Prior knowledge:
Blueprint: E1 3-8, E2 25-28, H1 35-41, E3 51-54, E4 57-59, E5 70-74, E6 98-100, H2 105-113, E7 118-120, H3 126-135, E8 139-141, H4 145-148, E9 156-157, H5 164-174, E10 195-197, H6 208-213, E11 217-219, E12 226-227, H7 231-244
Parallel strand pairs: 1-5, 6-7, 6-8, 8-9
Antiparallel strand pairs: 1-2, 3-4, 3-5, 10-11, 11-12
Amino acid sequence: MRQVTVRFYGSLNDFLAPERRGVEFLHALAGPCSVKDLIESLGPPHPEVDVVLVDGEAVDFSHRVEPGQRLAVYPVFSAIDVAPLVRVGPPALPKPRFLLDVGLGRLAGLLRMLGFDTLWRNDYADDVLARVSRDEQRILLTRDIGVLKRSEVVHGYFPRETNPSQQLVEVVRRFRLTALMHPFSRCIACNGALSEASHAEVQGRVPERVHASFTRFQQCPECKRVFWAGSHHARMQVIIDKLRELEQLP
C-alpha cells in the first residue's frame, strides 16, 4: 500500500483527530502530492508550519511526497534554534500588522488598543482576506481554517481560544508582541492613528463633566472620535500590565 509515516509536533496537534495527536501514524497516499497538500489534507493550515523534515532532511512545501517516507512537521518554536534548517514558514514581520475576519471584531479592538495596525470589517469575503493579507503583508487571524489554507496567505494564525481577552494573550505570545506594544496610539473603532487634542479643541465634543475633569485628550483624524483616560482606560491599562508580564514567562 502507498503509505507515509507522519508526526506533527507542538500546536499543530490542535488540528488533528485525538488519536493522531503527539504520535506517529500511517497515512495512505491517494496519489502524487506535495508536502503542503499532504499537510493541509490532514488538518493543519500551512501558515502555522515552520519546518518539515522528510526522512530527516528539511524540505520546502513543493517537495513531492513518495510512499515509504517519514514526515515530521513542526510549528514555530521560540525556544529551538532552527536557523540551519530549510524553513517553510516566512520570517517574522519586523512591524506586525493584522487583518481579522468577521468573527474577531472584539479582538481587533484589543489589538488596536495595544497600538497595532489592525484591519477588520464585518463584510470581508474570504478571497479578499487572502488577497489583502498577501498584498499588504498582514498577519491574517481567522477561525476559518479554509481561509488560512488559501495559497495566497503567507502570514496567518488560527486563534484557539474563543474568548477575546484570552485570544489577545494567545496572539501576543505567538507573535512576541509585548515589546512592540504602543498602547492608546490607535483608534479602537476605526484603526486611525491618534493625535493629541487640546482642551479647547474638544470643547463641545465631549460631555461637560469630562471637559471639566480631564486635561489630556486624543482624537482620531479619521472618524473624529475623542478619547480620554476615563474608567475604561483604567480597565484597559490592567490588561496591558498583565500582557507585559508575559515577557517574564517562558
